[in-house]
Amino acid sequence: MMGNCKECGCLCNNCNTNSLDLHHDIEVLNASLKESRLTISNLKKELKVSQEMLEEAEMRHQKETTKYNDRYDILLNNHRRLEVINHNLEDKILALVQDYDSEKEATMEIHEEIHRKLKAADKRVEDVVLEKDTLAAQCRVVMDLLRKCQTDVNVNKVLVRYSLGIQGYGVAKAAM
């Protein structure tokens, strides 16, 4: 019958004193196995905690990514809207500049036309003044001649009418 070995507690017939070293090795290996199992268990717990932390970090990252994507979309929409507004403003400014340039050209043409007409009017006034002076001198000569030869009564009437006409002509020309 087999009995339990007093040293190792095994049920073998071959236990002897030489196997004490083997029993010691078995106990060391069993202790090492328990320690390894405990280490594996601790590593599994750490792995589980690490996975949970990783999942939480991933969820936070997804939330932040979503938040930043939303901000980006808002900024992109605002940028596009500002581009449209800027383009419209540029078009309006260009239209205003073109209108201003057109009005400036028209005003310059009117100014040049008025300046030409003013020069022509000044020239005409000079000519009329010169003509008036010439006619006035001629009238004086004629009047002096007529006064010298006042032989006819009708000549005096003509002289009076003529001098009144000359005076009226000078007043009318001066008013121009």
Keywords:
2 helices, 176 residues, mainly alpha
Describe this structure in words.
The protein is mainly alpha-helical and 176 residues long. The protein is built from two helices and no strands. The protein is rod-shaped. It starts with 19 loop residues before the first helix and ends with a helix. The mean pLDDT is 83.
Lay out the secondary structure:
Blueprint: H1 20-148, H2 153-175
Helix pairs in contact: 1-2
Short description:
This protein is mainly alpha-helical and 176 residues long.
The helix content, as a percent range, equals: over 70%
Name the quaternary structure: single chain
Q: How many helices does DSSP assign?
A: 2
Q: Could you say which structural class the secondary elements and strand pairing correspond to?
A: mainly alpha
Low-confidence segments: none
What is the beta-strand fraction?
under 5%
What is the CA-CA span between the terminal residues? 162 Å
Largest sheet composition: none
Number-wise, the strands total 0
Rg result: 64 Å
Mean pLDDT across all amino acids: 83
Question: Could you spell the SSE succession in H and E letters?
Answer: HH
